[in-house]
């Protein structure tokens, strides 16, 4: 049974190495020669450690025993020469290792980032920012640079150990056999490490991700923290997270670092036995004093690489686990995918139809139920209702941020799930309530709507979005840096930049998700004018908090608790006594009068 278990462990470790190597090969292949050289160069570096121990035998026998200096003059020169060569090779190895590791890591990070861009909205909704950053960035560092560094170190220590063991056998095969038995006992516990590390490794990733998430939230929510005096509360939460990190680190140490002291004890025992047995061999004349000193020197030097192999092996295993996590990310299939043979989007469509549509974020908890609507080209559909009723969810299904659970959204009878996703989204412009602006200039953010836009088209978009006065008042105009998330602009200015971006895209379908609800009256009036310009000749889906802004909508649908309870024009719905829309409108009208 024990042999079976040992055989199984070896088989699993071998399979793990082969599997991870085959996964990484496409990244190693373009630079395989330098990658191989960065590892192979560790062989002579490690092997040269044996030179000092080996040279002590003739030196001790000639100088200490025979009292001859002339015969041994070359030994110190050889030691210095080979030490210089070893130092030069170490520098070359470090340079190659850094170059190869960074090249592979960057390629892997690029592919991971490209994979992340294919993930649907649901993934980013359900995962904290720290988890995403750690999964796509930190794991790549551990998988590539960590693996190469540890592999180089492992090879160097292994060949240093083998060369020093060679010196042991050269000086005394009897003593070497005793030491080999001890060394085997020191390395044996390494076979149990992987199984013990797996669970703690995953918990360690989760703890580190929580730290990253806290930093991200503190950066993004710094004004909320200041306004509500949350500094002490945040510090308390962060202290708890750091305590969890400490406990997991200690658990990791308990699971893995016991190997180093165990090897320390075993190797020290081996040194003690060698001194005792070696002294007996010297006194009996079986070996010379020089051989014994050379043997002891090699054995003591062997102590460091053997002890270090345990920690390096631990690092290699962690890199293998990171590789497995990375390729699990690659193998993850997003919920929203392109059809096998997608159809092009018909930009001259006549109707968009929501047919028997239902949707659930979580299984068994319906958010939308039996939605049936038809919107003709050039019409405006306004969605209104109480907060949490499902309005935003309806418009999020059009560009396939999520896919419907039941039913379908049809463009001229074609299910949007059969339409090429890129083509579909290219024909949809979205203006959110809180639009995301990227670091860079105003110009950069507007041109995201159409990178190939001419200066005339850009100027028109700025004018139609009522951004001219804003740009004119800035020293650098359109080339003004706006900071991360556009922090240097006001809310109304950010909305107008987003509207200008939508102008440049010039998509036939426009989605307005409460684009003015977060603005003050003055900003809202300006942004509303820009939106009216944007809506011209478009098929528009608008979610409006202020009902006065949707009077001219072709059709208004009132959604409550995931169902459509009323549809009609503004005038038609106001004529319905005790109707849902009329109640909402009267409530707002009364509130405005009181204000």
How would you describe the overall organization of this protein?
The chain has 595 residues and is of the alpha/beta class. The protein has 23 helices and 10 strands. It has helices spanning 2-28, 32-40, 42-47, 49-65, 74-116, 121-126, 129-143, 145-171, 173-187, 193-220, 222-227, 231-256, 259-284, 289-331, 391-396, 421-426, 442-447, 455-464, 468-472, 491-505, 521-535, 570-574, 580-594; strands at 351-362, 365-376, 380-384, 406-411, 414-415, 428-431, 509-513, 539-543, 555-560, 563-568. A 6-stranded mixed sheet has the order 6-7-8-3-9-10. Strands 2-1-4-5 form a 4-stranded antiparallel sheet, with no helix packed on it. A hairpin with a 2-residue loop joins β9 and β10 (563-568). α4 (49-65) packs parallel to α8 (145-171) and α8 runs antiparallel to α9. It is elongated, with a radius of gyration of 35 Å. The termini are far apart. Residues 1-13 have low confidence and may be disordered.
Annotation keywords:
single chain, 595 residues, alpha/beta, six-stranded mixed sheet, four-stranded antiparallel sheet, 23 helices, disordered N terminus
Layout of strands and helices, then pairs:
Elements: H1 2-28, H2 32-40, H3 42-47, H4 49-65, H5 74-116, H6 121-126, H7 129-143, H8 145-171, H9 173-187, H10 193-220, H11 222-227, H12 231-256, H13 259-284, H14 289-331, E1 351-362, E2 365-376, E3 380-384, H15 391-396, E4 406-411, E5 414-415, H16 421-426, E6 428-431, H17 442-447, H18 455-464, H19 468-472, H20 491-505, E7 509-513, H21 521-535, E8 539-543, E9 555-560, E10 563-568, H22 570-574, H23 580-594
Helix pairs in contact: 1-14, 2-5, 4-8, 4-14, 5-7, 5-8, 7-10, 7-14, 8-9, 8-14, 9-13, 9-14, 10-12, 10-14, 13-14, 18-20, 20-21
């Amino acid at each position: 049974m024990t042999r079976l278990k040992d055989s199984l462990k070896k088989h699993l470790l071998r399979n793990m190495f082969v599997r991870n190597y085959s996964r990484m090969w496409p990244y190693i292949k373009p630079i395989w020669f330098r990658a191989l050289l960065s590892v192979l160069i560790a062989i002579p570096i490690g092997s040269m450690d044996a030179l000092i121990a080996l040279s002590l035998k003739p030196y001790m026998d000639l100088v200490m025993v025979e009292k001859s200096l002339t015969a041994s003059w070359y030994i110190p020169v050889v030691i210095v020469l080979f030490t210089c060569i070893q130092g030069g090779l170490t520098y070359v190895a470090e340079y190659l290792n850094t170059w190869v590791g960074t090249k592979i890591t960057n390629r892997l990070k690029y592919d991971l980032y490209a994979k992340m861009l294919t993930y649907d909205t649901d993934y980013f909704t359900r995962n904290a920012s720290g988890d995403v950053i750690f999964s796509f960035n930190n794991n790549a560092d551990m998988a590539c640079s960590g693996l190469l560094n540890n592999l180089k170190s492992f090879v160097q220590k292994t060949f240093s150990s083998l060369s020093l063991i060679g010196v042991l056998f050269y000086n005394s095969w009897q003593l070497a056999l005793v030491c080999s038995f001890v060394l085997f006992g020191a390395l044996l516990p390494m076979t149990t490490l992987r199984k013990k590390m797996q669970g703690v490794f995953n918990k360690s990733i989760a703890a580190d991700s929580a730290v990253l998430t806290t930093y991200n939230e503190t950066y993004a929510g710094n004004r909320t923290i200041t306004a509500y005096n949350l500094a002490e509360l945040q510090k308390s939460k962060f202290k708890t997270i750091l305590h969890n990190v400490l406990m997991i680190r200690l658990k990791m140490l308990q699971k893995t670092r016991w190997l180093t002291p165990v090897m320390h004890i075993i190797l020290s025992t081996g040194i003690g036995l060698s001194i005792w047995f070696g002294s007996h061999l010297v006194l009996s004349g079986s070996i010379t004093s020089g051989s014994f000193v050379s043997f002891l020197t090699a054995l003591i030097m062997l102590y460091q690489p053997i002890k270090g192999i345990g920690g390096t092996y631990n690092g290699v295993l962690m890199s293998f686990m990171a590789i497995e996590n990375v390729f699990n990310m690659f193998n993850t299939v997003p919920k929203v995918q392109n059809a096998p043979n997608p159809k092009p989007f018909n930009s001259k469509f006549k109707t968009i139809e929501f047919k028997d549509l239902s949707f659930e974020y979580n299984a068994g908890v319906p958010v939308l139920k039996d939605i049936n609507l038809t919107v003709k080209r050039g019409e405006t559909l306004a969605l209104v209702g109480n907060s949490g009723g499902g309005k935003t969810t309806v418009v999020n299904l059009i560009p396939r941020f999520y896919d419907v659970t039941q039913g379908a959204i049809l463009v001229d009878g074609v299910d949007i799930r059969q339409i090429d996703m890129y083509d579909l989204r290219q024909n949809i412009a979205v203006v959110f309530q809180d639009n995301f602006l990227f670091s860079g200039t105003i110009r950069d953010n507007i041109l995201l709507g159409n990178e190939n836009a001419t200066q005339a088209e850009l100027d028109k978009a700025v004018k139609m979005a009522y951004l001219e006065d804003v740009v004119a008042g800035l020293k650098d105009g359109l080339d003004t840096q706006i900071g991360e998330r556009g922090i240097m602009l006001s809310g109304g200015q950010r909305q107008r930049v987003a509207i200008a971006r939508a102008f440049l895209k010039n998509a036939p379908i426009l989605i307005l998700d409460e684009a003015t609800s977060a603005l003050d009256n003055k900003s809202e009036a300006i942004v509303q004018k820009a939106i009216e310009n944007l809506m011209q000749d478009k098929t528009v889906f608008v979610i409006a908090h202020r009902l006065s802004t949707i009077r001219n909508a072709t059709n208004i649908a009132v959604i409550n608790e995931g169902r459509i309870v009323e549809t009609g024009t503004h005038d038609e719905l106001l004529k319905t006594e005790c109707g849902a829309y009329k109640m909402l409108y009267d409530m707002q009208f009364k509130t405005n009068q009181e204000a």
